[in-house]
Design a protein that fits this description.
The structure is a homodimer.
Chain A (H helix, E strand, L loop, with lengths): L1 H21 L6 H8 L3 H8 L2 H23 L8 H12 L5 H15 L3 H21 L7 H20 L4 H6 L4
The structure holds a DNA duplex (30 and 30 nucleotides).
Chain lengths: ~180, ~180
DNA sequence: CTACAACTGTAGCGGTTGCTACATTCGACT
DNA sequence: AGTCGAATGTAGCAACCGCTACAGTTGTAG
């Protein structure tokens, strides 16, 4: 049990690195294993099935994402809702976050297909991000609950448009917020 | 040539129907062919390759989407930006549009993976939607260009959050627009 | 009727998929 | 030293993937 847990803990970061580079949608056991320095046989041994492996991977990636977010943003609050949007977009638009965004859209695609594990992971990530926005809105925001939800929605729309090569649209819309 | 074009025109709606039901991400030639009443052999004969088939399918789906949008929305303008967002969300949240949203996230996922055909189709769809929003904003909007872009961004964010089971977030954020 | 091009079915290629049966090695405990 | 379970390698399964070679069968134009 202990050895198994240890092995999984060693494997997960390597698997995550491979997925961040090559995407989650068409990740298969043999390339995954090669990247992690094992065999498909052992991946199945440690995780039971590919489905479980992906579920564990999603949980791991969700943790990594919120950790990276906390690391990238200082504790201070934004000057305005608009500033809060701009801050998040500036950071997540940066190169460091690009690989995660790439797999994020694979996750959303899995959610739209009805995959329960994807839905759980994506929901958790969004809940975390919402909390982060709540914590970073200006102190004097007239309605932090609604404001944070509006900000989060706009951020996500901006990221989708950026993913399809229309990042100029949310940028130009920012002034109308 | 004529016969080929005809065949493709007969095939495309059937292929689109299958993709709208089962998703685009893991659509493969044999099931596609079965759904269209042909063989994988003939699909490749008519389209040349799976890549080209998907490209043609994307163009067809983009056309179907904007047609459905024009059909669902009357010509009159919205009362406000907020109302415009609410109108689009009400329609696209309806059951009829659900299958399209399902394949939409497959398209976005393909864009994030760098697929050029997906990027082109997605960009065209977004451009069409942006134009639609511009045309449906209130006459007296102070800045229709920026306003439409803001509205579109919010709509897309709302749809992503809905896809991951957090449709309540954009709903609650609407009042902060 | 012939000739030629468009069309289509059959069968299969080499590759990948998730997963498993079987045999073996390793390491800790008695 | 011996035992037992955890860990691992090898080999392979049946199903699927996109695609193609080959052999027809049509439909049509001269």
């Amino acid at each position: 049990m202990t050895a198994t847990r240890l092995s999984r803990d060693v494997l997960l970061p390597r698997l995550a690195a491979h997925v961040l580079e090559h995407g989650l949608a068409d990740a298969s056991l043999r390339p995954l294993a090669r990247a992690a320095g094992t065999s498909d046989r052992m991946l199945l041994y440690h995780f039971g099935s590919k489905e479980q492996l992906v579920a564990d991977l999603l949980a791991y990636l969700a943790g990594q994402f919120s950790a990276a977010l906390d690391r990238a943003f200082p504790a201070e609050r934004a000057a305005s809702r608009e500033d809060c949007v701009a801050q998040v977009l500036a950071i997540t638009g940066e190169g460091t976050f690009q690989p995660f965004m790439r797999v994020w859209w694979d996750i959303v695609s899995g959610c739209a297909a009805g995959n329960a594990a994807y839905l759980e992971a994506a929901g958790a990530i969004m809940d975390g991000l919402l909390q982060w926005v709540v914590d970073h809105l200006p102190e004097d925001d007239p309605d932090p609950q609604a404001g944070a939800r509006m900000v989060l929605t706009y951020i996500e729309g901006a990221q989708m448009l950026a993913a399809v090569g229309r990042g100029d649209i949310p940028q130009a819309g920012l002034s109308a917020l």
